[in-house]
Prior knowledge:
The chain has helices at residues 11-29, 33-43, 50-58, 67-92, 103-107, 109-128, 133-155, 164-189, 194-221, 224-227, 233-236, 242-249, 253-258, 263-266, 268-277, 280-300, 307-321, and strands spanning 96-97, 100-101.
Amino acid sequence: MDLSRFWDPFPSLRQRLTGVAHAIEATWEGSPAPFKKDLEPLLLTPGKMLRPAFLLMAASSAKEEDLPLISRTAAAVEILHIASLIHDDILDNAPARRGIPALHRRVGIKRAVLEGDYLLSRALQLASEASDPFLLEGVNRAMENLCTSEIDQDFGRGGLFIDRERYLTRVRGKTAELFGLSLMAGAKLGGQSRDDIRLAYEAGIQFGISFQIADDILDYRGSKEKLGKPTGKDLREGIPTLPLILAREKSDWMTDLLCRKPLNILFSRTLYRRIERLGCLDETEREGRAYLDRSREMMNRLDFPDKSLFGKVVEELAGRQF
């Protein structure tokens, strides 16, 4: 498996991520024969593997003999993430993932559901190798919050009149929870105190919210070539994100009018331009950066060898995001 070039400036972390990649490859090798060809693009051509990287950095206090177990636990988090993407794409009827046709478009919905469920079971099996009830509780909580957030978003599709609190609850479940799990699991495996484990978890939540906010912005300012999917997708599908919520907080009559059904579908491009004119994208960037800064401040309060590396990685990501 070839790792993302993103990790080239961080050779020590890249080397440790190779161990995670091997654990993911082993999962693919052990897959049922009918699944192997289907899952190959997802398991052997990974994204940036940010969640495993966060876990590895948070666990950098661990003993060298514990690294194989840590790598498998990090692989469990990544496989859980991949399984969630499969299910997300089915719910959204997404045409593509990482620049190639989404799994359900290639193999059909029934088979994609089965393969996503299989990956969930493999993630749980890998996570259970740590024989730590605290970690398993974290994995189960992450899965539950992923599901409930997706249920809330899917059942509320087309309803653009939600407030910031509900938006953040959704984001916490569908995106931030896995980052929280990654830093929490890493801190636990690295031997941190219970208070520091909780702090690492909250740092992951703060980062995850910033990460989703950056994705919200990319839906306006990104490009189809870089994203591997069309821009403007959220508004067209009736999914409210932070730029829209900020526009509505300004009590702008035109925004409120365009959010009403069925105008929000017929005039999504007009609504898109209105949000830009109100300066809500720049405001969204500032809010995302504030969450990112809080995450860094929390991690700076912990004592672990990769603290400086974590700051560099997060700042590199911030350059892409904000």
